[in-house]
């Protein structure tokens, strides 16, 4: 009989408040690279809503702004760090 694998403990996700709503940002633009870098990982990937705490409206704007910034070569597609 095979041994059962131990189950991993699930992380408890806290209800984070949207950092963009708190700072009063109404619209996210691709030109604000410093703000967009806060919502990307070290590798250049977009951070999920659960980890970033962004609301649905701002996460949707962040997604399109990051993609535009990548196309305009303001942000890297991926980094090798």
Notes on the structure:
The chain starts with 18 loop residues before the first helix and ends in a 10-residue tail after the last helix. The chain contains 4 helices and no strands. It is flat. It has helices at residues 19-23, 33-37, 49-52, 56-71. The protein has a domain at 19-71: Irregular (30s Ribosomal Protein S18). The protein has 81 residues and is an all-alpha fold. Part of the 30S ribosomal subunit. Forms a tight heterodimer with protein bS6. This is Small ribosomal subunit protein bS18. Binds as a heterodimer with protein bS6 to the central domain of the 16S rRNA, where it helps stabilize the platform of the 30S subunit. One of its GO terms (biological process) is translation.
Q: Could you outline the blueprint of secondary structure elements for this entry?
A:
Blueprint: H1 19-23, H2 33-37, H3 49-52, H4 56-71
Subunit structure: Part of the 30S ribosomal subunit. Forms a tight heterodimer with protein bS6.
Protein name: Small ribosomal subunit protein bS18
Family: Belongs to the bacterial ribosomal protein bS18 family.
């Amino acid at each position: 009989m095979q041994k059962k694998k131990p189950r991993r403990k699930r992380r408890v996700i806290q209800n984070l408040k949207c950092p963009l709503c708190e700072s009063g940002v109404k619209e996210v633009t691709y030109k604000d690279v410093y703000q967009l870098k806060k919502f990307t990982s070290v590798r250049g990937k977009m951070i999920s809503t659960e980890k970033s705490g962004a609301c649905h409206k701002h996460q949707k704007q962040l997604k399109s702004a990051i993609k535009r910034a990548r196309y305009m070569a303001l942000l890297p597609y991926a980094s090798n760090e």
